[in-house]
Every structure is written in C-alpha cells, then in structure tokens.
Amino acid sequence: MKKIFITIFLLFLILSSIYAQNQNVYIIPIKGTIELGLASFVERSIREHPNAKAFIFEIDTFGGRVDAAIKIRDTILATPTLTIAFIKDRAWSAGALIALSCEKIVISPSGSIGAAEPRPADEKTISALKAEFESTAKKRNRNPKIAAAMVDADEVIPGLKQKGKILTLYAEEAKKWKIADEILENTDSVIKFFNLEKGKIIELQPNWAENFVRFITDPTVSSIILTVGMLSLYVAIFTPGLGVPELLALVCLGLFFGGHYLAGLAGLEPVILFLLGLILIFIEMHTPGFGIPGIAGSISVFLSIYWTIVQKGGTLQALLTGILVVLSLIIFLAIYLPKSRVWIKFGLPESQKKDLGYTAFQERKDLIGKKGKTITMLRPTGIIEIEGEKFEAYSESEFIEPSEEVIVFKVEGNKIFVRRSEK
Right CATH number for 349-420 from 2.60.40.10, 3.40.630.10, 2.40.50.140, 3.10.310.10? Predict the structure, then answer.
C-alpha cells in the first residue's frame, strides 16, 4: 500500500511539472536588423520549448535580409504552438513578413506594419517576395491583396491604396482592415488579452554565438570588415615584415568568412577559392610572365566574395560598392603611401643596387674600427659609406643625422653597429 501511495505521489509531481511547463509563455525579441543569426535564435527558441503555451514575438525592426525573414517565417508557420506578434513600434519590410506569419497580430498605438518593397526593386524580386507575402497572409486567413500591396507599388486597393505607393498601415488601419487583431499598449496587456497569465512569462535572449553571427553578418559591419581586411592585405603584400597589416588582414578576413560560414551564408568553398586567388597573385608578383596568374587570382578573389555575399541573399549593389571603396583606397595608398613619413620610416629611400656600391651579405669583421659617413639618417638603422662602399648599419643608442662621421665598433653576422666618431 505504501509503495502504491509513493508511486501515485511521484506520478502526480511529474504530471504537475509537465502541466506547468505547458503553461509557460516565451517572449522572443525581434529587434534591429533581420539577419540569419536572428533566424537561428528563433529556430532554437521554438525547438527547445515544444510544450510552450504561446510564443510572443516582440517586433521592432526596419527590416533586413529577406532570406533570414523567410527562414523565421517558415519556423513560425511550422510550430503548432500559439504564435502572437506584438508590434511595439515598427514591423517594416522583412519584419512585416514575420508578423504576418503569426496566428495573432497585436499592434501598439504608435506601431506600423508594411513598407516591404525589396531592393533592388526589379520585377523578378518583387514577384518572388510578393508571393511569399500573399501565401503567408492566406495561411493565416488575412487579406492577401493587402499583404501584396506592402511589396508591390502597382497593387491597388480601393479606399486604402493607390497605384504607385507602397502600403504601410498604422495601428487603426491595421485593425480596421483585419491585419491586426487588437491594439494594445504593451506586452503585459497582450498576455492578459489572450488569458496567458497562469504560467511563467520567460523572455528569451540570443546566446553569444548568435549575437556574434548577427554582428558579423550585418551588411554595414561586414562591408567595413571586408574593406579593412583587403586594404591590410594590400599593405602586407607591398610592405612585408611589418607584422601589423598581416595580423589585421588575417583577423578581418577570418571574421568575414568565418562569420558567414557560421551563419550558413557560405561553406568552405569560398574560403578555398579566396586562398587560391591569393596564391596566384603571389605567384604573379614573384615570377615573370604575361599576367595570367594575376588575372586568374583576381577573378578567384572576386568570385569568393561574390559567392559569400550575393549568392546567399546579399545584393550585387552592396558588393560593387565595397569593391569600389577598396579599389579607391588602394589607388590612394599606391600614390601617397611611398611619400608618407610612415613608409620612409620603415623603408629605404633608394634601391641597394650593385652599381651604387652595395654588396651582398658577408661578415665584415675587417670593418671594426674603421670610420665612415652616414648617407641617410640612422634611426636606428640607415645607410653609411666606408671607403666608397655602402652598408646598412645600426646606431648604438641614438639617432644620427646624415653626413655625420661614424665608427664601426661591432659586427654580428650581417649587422654593422656604429657610433658617432669622436673628433
């Protein structure tokens, strides 16, 4: 009898726990730019809470990537759990599609929904996105013509929208035309309106990986990282040995391709293609030829970036803008960098040609004790001349001006150390 009682008690606790979990309401924020990092967050949130009573999507966004919005839309439509979109301020562009995919839409008095004309606004893109909006509206028993008018300026809705305008609905219009179910002030009001107070109210947040992917794949951030990476690579190629440009190029290009890989925007193929391009460019720079490796390398680099950005939902316009910025800065550096103080500081002002008196490496112990004259400033390295021969030399502990008399006091390998000669 005692065992039966314990069994019933444990069963009661288990059932109570399951019932409590079934009453939980999860709030999922949809804020900022719509990116694939956000899509991963929404997918994980719904997958990890299959027994939720409801999901409330707090929406405040100007839009973002269409492919990410479609991924979120598909995830929301696939769940049997009650889904509620609460438009706090704006559900524009990609945000409008996410809102339309929810079973219920609530909008705040200051909220608006629509403005979903794609960029570029060509016929093919408009047609595809318009179909997504229409099918989503039909699935949720909303007027597909109104949804289509948010995308296509040619749509006409008597009493609401004229031809040539993109539809954006404010709160009262959204409720009047049955796009929104209710107008409420805040999330607490939404919870009370749908009688969801019994369970716990849990606000979910993206994890660090999802936040990282969202940041890296943001169009503006991604363009900046790519530009800095390509410029650093250019400086590293033409001023080898500095260390900083190489490291910066490695970090920026690693973030660019790595972030897009984690977001599912690119596989390993673009990375391999990019590395192949760099190898071909390196071969072109160090071997004589007709420019074929250089041309092939440049094409490979361009295709790897195109594959990463454009093929997975980016725009050709954004890619071309980024390339134009990079090329402009490279031309600027090519013209002005050799004349800058930074370049002169790290480089020699003239080539060390044999006919000018320069010699190949040999340990010149015979120079110890000999006097010479500085040709360039030693800071601490520069060029000196001893008995008609020119050498690269290092000052002992100070900068030495040109035309100063110096004396060699030490030779280590190919390094010649000098100090001012005492007159």
Answer: 2.40.50.140
